[in-house]
Design a protein that fits this description.
By secondary structure, this protein is mainly alpha-helical. The chain has 20 helices and eight strands. Helix 3 packs antiparallel against helix 5, helix 6 packs parallel to helix 8 and helix 16 packs parallel to helix 17.
Length: 618
């Protein structure tokens, strides 16, 4: 009997609306076709594979769908009626199951089921060559591994569905009683899948003009493997180092879910380092560097498919990013503001961090930072103008790419007016405008294209980078430092300084003292990650896997004094714009309540079982 695609829960067949690679990613199956027809023809089979790709989330839609920057300490999404704001006030609960609440459990499992179903049926195709089928299988397995990784980083260890576990939507409840796998089993599975895909030798190594950009390559698989091994080595999944709330986290049979221990921690860090080294061997892959630190860092995300990009989503859905991160005088929303905590994380031009004294004042050890007064002339390679608050002067190039601050010239080629965030300013709050303005007094121009004409609706689209080499340099040095600071210090400095040199700041050991021990180096690496990878989904998950999210994300978050009607005279004051709630147990997201009802062996993450949205004020 023929089975309609529409009757399968795995087939919410949504093709990506992409601006490039139309011959693959723009394919959309005809939902009236039977599965037998789909897998009988080459075109329809590739359309089904395109559907498997469609579960890749766009990383820079911060308002509701991909919220990780907004629920970390990096960004404020100014709209209090958005779900991301409610999450920051502690309103997340297991019965908040929609995608807009960031709940991606069923989203990724649908992608996993789609990939598995494809693998089970692609051999039925008689119009494709054996080589084509092998390549498609490799891609589907790679996507499935990625979706599992995305689940584990958000929810912790999950239920692993092998090829035999294709459970239809109308299956009896008795067929759905599957327990969560342990951390080690989850990461072992992801790593094994990645390596086996590489060993299939079916994919291009790095980039191939015959392969649509955005599709899986061996370098992509090597990167996913390396990132998974880094997470596996991290404290969150180690019962000897994890947060107390997770130490006795067990399945219904009493087996440990966070089952790694200190006994093999060094080995896991070494595997993570080795996997990064394997990735570095792929030809054609290098840091994107055009000689100018500002243009190099900006270009990582503006120059599509450059030499640093390992994997990207061809259509990044940058429209929302460019609207929300642009000021009102170019018809933007002025809605996504950088927190003061993130502003303070950037280095000075001399490569020194901004530190805090016990009294709350800030300084740099070499005297390169000041908050006392305003500039008397333009400077910083044209990035600051006369009368700019000194907090924003003499900062590193990545700061000027990433942060829009008071009095700077806007980056658009169509309108480079100076930006004013204070009450009554040209993009600040006013007596009339009390919605579209930044509560922090900053914006996030890192992903805004200067070629976009926002005022006239001509926004430039770009590929959204998912994996890039700069991250893996930092992954590598983190792993090496945990293996052994003294032994690995020369190698750590080589790769850490490569990031700093590209960023236009002095290397450690060349104007900035080398961190003296493992603890100091760990702090230096974490600060470098925070800056280099800002707004790229890294900060949220880094703090979670390091077990410090509750320390960094909870409590008062600051900006400038953007809401005070006295305007510019009182603007330059650190001011609390929001006091956030982030408990230690929120390090792992709640599994949707309906899924724990269906599967009695699916244990909920700690503490969430007692929380319901009905007890919260909406």
């Amino acid at each position: 009997m023929k089975t309609s695609i529409l009757k399968l829960s795995l087939c919410a067949l949504l093709a990506l609306p992409l601006s490039s690679c139309e011959d693959f990613f723009d394919n959309e199956p005809d939902n009236t076709q039977t599965l037998e027809e789909v897998f009988s023809h080459r075109k329809q089979t590739l359309e089904f594979l395109a559907n498997v790709y469609s579960y890749i989330r766009p990383p820079y839609c911060w308002s509701n769908e991909t919220i990780w920057a907004g629920v970390s300490d990096e960004v404020d999404v100014t709209y209090t009626d958005y779900e991301v704001s409610k999450i920051n006030l502690g309103m997340l609960a297991p019965d908040k199951e929609t995608l807009y609440y960031g709940n991606l459990w069923n989203h990724y499992y649908n992608g996993i089921r789609a990939a598995t179903y494809f693998l089970q049926h692609v051999d039925e195709n008689t119009e494709m060559t054996a080589a084509e089928i092998l390549k498609c299988k490799a891609e589907a397995r790679g996507l499935r591994a990625w979706y599992y990784f995305c689940l584990v980083r958000q929810y912790g260890p999950v239920v692993l569905l092998d090829d035999s576990h294709m459970i239809p939507a109308d299956a009896p409840t008795s067929d759905m009683q599957l327990p969560r796998s342990s951390a080690s089993k989850c990461f072992d599975y992801i790593v094994k899948e990645c390596q086996e895909v590489i060993d299939m030798k079916a994919l291009a190594d790095f980039r191939d003009t015959a392969l649509d950009y955005g599709r899986m390559t061996n370098a992509t698989m090597a990167a996913i493997k390396a990132r998974a091994l880094l997470y596996a080595a991290s404290p969150l999944y180690n019962q000897d180092q994890t947060l107390p709330v997770f130490k006795n986290f067990v399945n219904v049979d009493g087996s440990k879910i966070m089952d790694y221990t200190d006994a093999d921690a060094q080995t896991r860090w070494q595997k993570a380092a080795d996997a990064c080294r394997e990735l570095f061997r792929y030809p054609g892959l290098s840091l994107y560097d055009v000689g100018d630190p500002y243009e190099s860092y900006k270009g990582i995300h503006m120059k599509d498919w450059n030499c640093e990009v390992i994997w990207a989503r061809p259509s990044g859905q940058f429209w929302e990013q460019q609207m929300a991160s642009s000021p009102r005088f170019v018809s933007g929303w002025s809605g996504w503001g950088v927190t003061q905590e993130m502003v303070d994380a950037f280095f000075t031009r001399t490569g020194y961090p901004v530190l805090e004294r016990p009294d709350g004042s800030r300084y740099a050890e070499d005297g390169s930072y000041s908050e006392d007064g305003f500039s008397t002339s333009a400077g910083d390679d044209g990035h600051t103008q006369r009368d700019t608050y000194l907090m924003y002067c003499n900062r590193e190039p990545r700061f000027y790419v990433s942060v829009a601050f008071e009095n700077m010239k806007w980056i658009s080629k169509y309108n480079d007016a100076q930006v004013h965030f204070y009450f009554g300013g040209n993009t600040g709050r006013t007596n009339v405008e009390n919605r579209n303005y930044s509560q922090t007094g900053y914006l996030t121009p890192k992903f805004v294209d200067p070629e976009s004409d926002v005022a006239n609706g001509r926004n430039q689209e770009h590929a959204a980078v998912l994996l890039r080499l700069g991250e893996f340099y930092l992954n590598y040095v983190e792993a090496l430092n945990e293996v052994g600071y003294e032994t690995n210090r020369p190698e750590i400095l080589t790769y850490l300084n490569a990031i700093r040199t590209r960023a236009g700041i002095p290397a450690y050991g060349n104007g900035v003292p080398v961190p003296a021990n493992q603890d100091e180096m760990r702090e230096a690496i974490r600060r470098e990650r925070r800056v280099e990878l800002c707004f790229e989904e890294a900060r949220y998950f880094d703090c979670c896997r390091w077990c410090i999210a509750h320390k960094n994300f909870a409590g008062p978050k600051h900006g400038m004094n953007a809401n005070d009607a006295r305007g510019k005279d009182v603007f330059f004051q650190r001011t609390v714009f929001e006091t956030r709630v982030f408990n230690d147990y929120a390090t792992l997201w709640p599994i949707p309540l309906s899924d724990t009802y269906k599967d009695k062996n699916l244990v909920q993450n700690p503490q969430w079982s007692s929380i319901s949205s009905s007890t919260m004020e909406d």
